[in-house]
Specification:
mainly alpha
Length: 150
């Protein structure tokens, strides 16, 4: 049983990355474009362009979420996304109460730790990172096997 689960691990991690990236990108799209209900409490409204920190957070959510979704630059995007969620928790939520359940910060905490996990695990299966890595490894192998010109 353990061997089967170990073989499926890259695919489970890839599906985890896809779901988390999609959810994060949806938050950014809602804030920037008013889709999916828009910003919470605004009846479909958007974040005004350039407002600190909300507009910048929405841009990070959209771009990093999309990159994580497709598995391109996953580790770098996940570092930025995790940091933005840590900032959101400590700047916005922590001042209201100590525990995330009390201050409404469960979502930023979960996103922060999910992205931190992706920093250390990478994209898993089904990501563009692996496609490009396998192509560059094949090209490197081909170059190494070519005869040296005299």
């Amino acid at each position: 049983m353990t061997a089967r689960l170990n073989r499926a691990q890259p695919y489970a991690l890839g599906l985890f990355r896809i779901v988390v990236g999609l959810l994060f990108a949806c938050h950014g799209a809602a804030s920037l474009f008013g889709v999916l209900g828009g910003v919470a409490g605004t009846n479909g409204g958007t974040v005004p362009t350039g407002t600190w920190p909300f507009w910048y957070a929405a841009m990070i959510q959209l771009v990093a979420g999309a990159l994580i979704l497709v598995g391109l630059g996953t580790r770098g995007a996940a570092v930025i996304a995790s940091g933005s969620m840590a900032y959101a928790y400590f700047d916005v939520h922590q001042s209201h109460a100590l525990w995330p359940i009390q201050n409404g910060g469960e979502l930023p905490v979960l996103f922060c730790w999910a992205f931190l996990l992706l920093v250390f695990t990478g994209s898993g299966a089904l990501g563009l990172d692996r496609l490009f890595a396998s192509r560059s490894a094949a090209a490197e192998k081909e170059r190494a096997s070519e005869p040296v010109a005299a």
